[in-house]
Amino acid sequence: MLVENLIKSTVELQGFRVVEVRMGDDGLEAELAPDARYAPRCGGCGAPARYRDKRSARLFRHVPLWGIATRLVYAPRRVDCPRCGVRVEAMPWASGKRRMTRALMVTLATWARMLTWRQVAALFHCSWDTVAAAVDDAVAYGLERRDISELTHIGVDEISRKRGHVYLTNVYDLVTSRLIWSGEGRARETLDAFFDWLGEERAARLEGICCDMWRPYIDVIKARAPQATLVFDKFHIVGHLMKAVDEVRRDEIREKGEDAKALMKKTRYIWLKNPWNLSANQRARLADLERLNLKINRAYLLKEAFREFWSYTTSGWARRYLDKWFWWATHSRLAPMRDFAWMLRRHQDDLLSYFKLPIDNGAVEGLNNKARMIAHKAYGFRSAKNYIRNLYHCMAKLPLPKTLHTFA
Q: pTM (2 decimals)?
């Protein structure tokens, strides 16, 4: 196969032709020229337009062939479009003003979903900025063409971007397990920005929204999507419960001093684990500790008793059990458990919504772990913009442009 034919089979060239392929100092150069059988098309609207003049030659970086750097050389024409005015003609192999082919953009973006941008740049012998530009184009293309018309159930959660309480708010589609939106911060204004982007019409189609008991999120959701059922995430609630149990353990060690510290050394996860996940040694240690009159043992029993709350199938029976558990917790003389019980009482109605619409952020927690892995793999991102852009690219299931040849 001639190299000219290989170029034709891997580059969108309708309306253009390959004049020659030569070996230059920096690799292969394929010189292109207009095909006289086709009229030039406007770069704005894509309609046929009248030729005006020609610009100087440009180099467009293409996917390396056999590891050899490959560039397309073409002098673009300017056209006089009745609708758009004087514009540079449309070139089917390029996107906008980028000096790379669409095929290279898709290839770099595909590899960037698996490797860090720095590794992709080293693999293709290009700059980090080139990879970032490819990802930027891929994300812009995907966001413009993705379908969110069937968005009905969403999960809202925050993720720490770096140390110092620097957060992002992520919104996920709970049905398809994909990222829908990401923004800086976790304040009321952050979630307001999401609903501004979503629009009133699509917000009105939301049926269920799952989040934690963070007041700014609750206020915005009830104001912007009042028809949706607000459900508190059971995993966050259990997380608060575990924190209360551990606070009881810490308080007891502080109150009783060194003797209690020695007694309860390396027991933290014994109290927090599910009973069926305990090892044989841990079960034996727990049995010994349960014989003692420890405050942490009362907290552990309350934690295990709360497990039954999630087993109910109707909100009425769940409410009755929650009232009973609330009395136990508030009369346990354990301040952390009492505070947790009052937190549930303040949010009781939305907590019981789970039994009307049993959704949770279990999938969201998995996606958040993936988001942390993306940051860890890249050793962090200097700016939130780059981090958000990579989250969209790797977690939003965005479509990529179709190309003539699949390179990766």
A: 0.80
